[in-house]
Amino acid sequence: MAAGNLAGKAAIVTGGAQGIGGATARRLAAAGAKVLIVDVDKEAATANVQTIAQAGGQATYLIGDVAKEENTKAMVERAVNAFGRLDIVVQNAYGGGRNRAGSAVEVDPEAWREGLDLLVGALFLGAKYAVPAMVQSGPPPGYDPGPWQGAGLRHGTPPPREVGRIVNVSSVHGLVQAPRSLVYEVGKCAVIGLTRQMAIDFGPQGITVNAVAPGHIVTEGMERMWQQTGNEEGFHLFELHYPVRRTGVPDDIAHAITFLCSPEAAFITGVVLPVDGGMSIQLQENVIMDVKDYILQHPQLRTHFDRPGRNTARS
Ligand SMILES: NC(=O)c1ccc[n+]([C@@H]2O[C@H](COP(=O)([O-])OP(=O)(O)OC[C@H]3O[C@@H](n4cnc5c(N)ncnc54)[C@H](O)[C@@H]3O)[C@@H](O)[C@H]2O)c1
């Protein structure tokens, strides 16, 4: 397994116990990276480490809330102690949260602070401690930049050495806004700004920083939610407004993140890659007409928006 294109590299995946982060930890390990999963869920983190080991990969875990500075600092120290270096950080952890839904009038200031501490603050702290460790680690063992192909064609200045990769997980909610979701939407927009800023700041040190913007991804948690409150007709309604006519699975995002962490993605930085089956590029008015027809044909449909107490524009 260690023969993949990330062989010899060391990675951190926050929220890597399950869901998108869980799949990402498994994909990075399958590509040869050693992976530190940082999560608050010990049971799920242990299970994912075992899954990775059974597949021939190398992973360990650290339990901690990444919104807390001491934990973010500790995760970087742990990765360096465990693997001897740090090359990749995937900043993915998010745990939802009570009282975080609503408009600016409805959201409690404490919920605003807590929500943004995790959605944005944790990513700032992650970079704050990870970047010096990446620079200290230098390029991966055996790294050979080869001849600089620009010589002769341009002025011949060699590029910065390949030092690190940061991938931040935003959302389609960072690209288009949902009503009465102030904290999440602002947080995911801020992840995009933070990614661009970090790409500019850390590019000269050989570190790329990119974001992914997933669409609706049926993780283990989403699956449970659909089973509790949705039905097949409701789920198909979601699929219908994706041009590829399906919603996503964790591996869809894990593959995109693993590519952004690969040597092949060395010239990509500061981008926000939507991984959403084309959902966010559509003209809304046409979609709405298709959806209207479908709802009229399936009036019994239910989705997770039909949960009691769910904060939407309709409630
Ligand atoms: N699932 C989707 O449809 C979807 C869509 C767009 C974006 N996203 C984003 O993808 C990321 C992962 O979402 P997911 O759906 O896989 O979630 P998930 O709930 O399946 O997994 C999140 C993981 O993060 C962990 N976690 C929660 N709070 C934490 C904290 N404070 N510190 C450390 N770990 C913590 C959880 O224990 C869990 O293992 C999030 O940033 C989310 O906003 C998800």
List keywords for this structure.
315 residues; alpha/beta; 7-stranded parallel β-sheet; 9 helices; 12% strand; globular; binds nicotinamide-adenine-dinucleotide
Description of the structure:
It is globular, with a radius of gyration of 20 Å. It has one domain (10-141, 160-219, 248-279): Rossmann fold (3-Layer(aba) Sandwich). Helices cover 43% and strands 12% of the residues. It has a 7-stranded parallel β-sheet, with helices on both faces. α1 (19-30) packs parallel to α2. It has helices at 19-30, 42-54, 69-83, 109-137, 182-202, 220-229, 232-240, 250-260, 284-297; strands spanning 10-14, 34-39, 58-63, 88-91, 164-169, 207-214, 272-275. The chain has 315 residues and is of the alpha/beta class. The model has no long low-confidence stretch (mean pLDDT 93). Bound molecules: nicotinamide-adenine-dinucleotide (NAD).
